[in-house]
């Protein structure tokens, strides 16, 4: 994929023995990613929320969105996967959520949740065919990680977010620095494009003892 992160060691991140997660952390390009997630779509939720993984990232992110921006506006779930984030946001009262994802199979699962206004295929390593300032919130969970989308996506999230709006994104903690994400967030702040609200370490796949940075940015007015 274009703009993939500078590789860390994917084997340093605990996969709790899940072979599909091991493959996900070693993806080489968008075609490989699409094929993997299409294959995984029907059992992704069961695999990631079981006792060995404890994938709490979507719930933590949805709670963060509610706390820092509210859920009444238009929200883009970037890299929505099967819709775990959309479901968590809808449970908090969000009613206008759009989702994009690389995998048609994952989008089918997201559609079945009923949480989304619109769903569309998209490669987050490229500019989206969406007008600037389209959303009050952009949320991205599970996509800024090994073998997936690199730090340049933050600039696109800024473009899509209305002035004063919020970006809430998880970045796997062990590539926050080595993958260039911290540097890109700092660059956007230095250019006065965003205010860095927080980059706290939070539980991500809690049972596997894997954490992430919860990056919260406020887009400049």
TrEMBL record:
Keyword vocabulary terms for this entry: Methyltransferase, Transferase
Transferase in keyword set: yes
Matching InterPro entries: Methyltransf_25, Methyltransf_Superfamily, SAM-dependent_MTases_sf
Residue ranges of every copy of the Methyltransferase domain listed in the record: 75-165
GO process terms (BP): methylation
Domain of life: Bacteria
Gene Ontology molecular functions: methyltransferase activity
Pfam families listed in its UniProt record: Methyltransf_25
Protein name, entry field: Class I SAM-dependent methyltransferase
């Amino acid at each position: 994929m274009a703009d993939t992160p500078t590789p860390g060691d994917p084997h340093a991140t605990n996969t709790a023995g899940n072979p599909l997660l091991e493959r996900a952390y070693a993806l080489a390009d968008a075609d490989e990613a699409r094929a993997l997630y299409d294959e995984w779509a029907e059992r992704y939720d069961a695999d990631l929320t079981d006792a060995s993984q404890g994938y709490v990232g979507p719930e933590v992110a949805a709670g963060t969105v509610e706390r820092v921006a509210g859920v009444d506006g238009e929200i883009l779930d970037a890299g929505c996967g099967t819709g775990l984030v959309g479901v968590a946001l809808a449970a908090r009262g969000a009613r206008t959520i759009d989702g994009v994802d690389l995998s048609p199979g994952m989008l089918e699962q997201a559609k079945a949740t009923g949480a989304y206004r619109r769903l569309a295929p998209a490669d987050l390593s490229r500019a989206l065919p969406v007008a600037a300032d389209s959303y009050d919130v952009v949320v991205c969970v599970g996509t800024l990680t090994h073998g997936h989308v690199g730090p340049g996506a933050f600039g696109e999230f800024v473009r899509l977010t209305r002035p004063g709006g919020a970006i809430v994104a998880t970045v796997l903690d062990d590539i926050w620095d080595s993958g260039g994400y911290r540097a890109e967030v700092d660059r956007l702040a230095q250019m006065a494009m965003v205010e860095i609200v927080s980059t706290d370490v939070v539980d991500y796949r809690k049972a596997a003892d894997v954490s992430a940075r919860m990056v919260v940015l406020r887009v400049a007015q």
